[in-house]
Write a structure and sequence with these properties.
eight-stranded parallel β-sheet; eleven-stranded mixed β-sheet; 11 helices; 21 strands; binds pyridoxal-5'-phosphate
Length: 387
Amino acid sequence: MELSAFYRDTWVEVNLDHIYTNVRSMKNFLSPDEEVIAVVKANAYGHGDAQVAKVALEAGASLLAVAFLDEALSLRQQGIVEPILVLGAVRSEDIKLAAEQNIILTVFRADWLETALRDNELDRPLSFHIKLDTGMGRLGAKEADEVSKLISILAENEWCELAGIYTHFATADEVGTDYFQYQYEKFLEMLKWFPILPPLIHCGNSATGLRFPDKIFNAVRLGIAMYGLTPSLEIKDELPYALNEAFSLHSRLVHVKKISKGEKVSYGATYTAKGEEWIGTVPVGYADGWIRKLQGTEVLVNGVRCPIVGRICMDQFMVKLPEAFPIGTKVTLIGKQDEESIMIDEVAKTLDTINYEVPCTISYRVPRIFLRKESIIEVRNPVLFNQ
Ligand SMILES: Cc1ncc(COP(=O)(O)O)c(C=O)c1O
């Protein structure tokens, strides 16, 4: 059986030129000696980890960041050889694997580091970034004692290297800057605990890089803005350069029918036709991440906004059409058609959530098509191919 890329009429398009431009824009915005760390955790916020990583590196990112060791290993399996930093906690028994794969780890507990080095004899270099908790309350060392223990344990082990120090802001994307300023000053104070500073000091996510470029030390961890999305709606109007959204989601009508007044649509028979209506069936459902809460919202068909009617099923939903569009007509759930657009911020607003969550939620079941210079350069479909 020879298989083609995918066999369903639903796909995500990832515009890698936009990723490239977004990384270049941040690079150009920063001083030449400041670095971009491309944050490609969670399958690059749902976009496609290795594909985004490659383009970000090409555009000038010097380091990749993920949340978990599995994500770093996945990038290695896909041929990425550049440095990768794991931002989250790693199990102490896995440090040898990290060293073997040349993966940089985050460290913030002296007891973890002691156990890791006692139970696993390193035989090759392993780099660490110390994470400091300046007020995010998530991960990070808070006390000077803990930090000096970390520094000395690392210094005593011939294979360990302290390559970076970082922290994370809780409110860099909010208009009010008091808490940001508090965390920034705390970071400055905590840096004094280090007799020698390592090469990389970083504290900024996208919002920090965009709004406070003089407060990033020497690198920005660029996530959401690399994908062309604003870190928050609050600061959308004060962005220093234009962002280019890279993610769009499309499908096609697979069935179109006329129903009469009183006829029902979908589970629970919650929608009743008010008169003669054209109803289209779209093969996307909550198992693809188009969750039931999106009932009643609009999608684009033939350049026109059309409402989703009746309950969203696991694999399909129905849409009310203004006329009998042909089978195969393109349906855009996120993206543009002619003059109309439904962008990620709109979907996020409807769902009462943040834009970050929307592409992350579009499941592995939806194939990703990667575009470069308007041509398809790759298709990823984990359902058919173990990717
Ligand atoms: C530690 C850390 N740094 C950087 C980022 C990237 O943030 P953003 O996507 O807002 O640029 C994240 C994302 O959540 C993160 O957890």
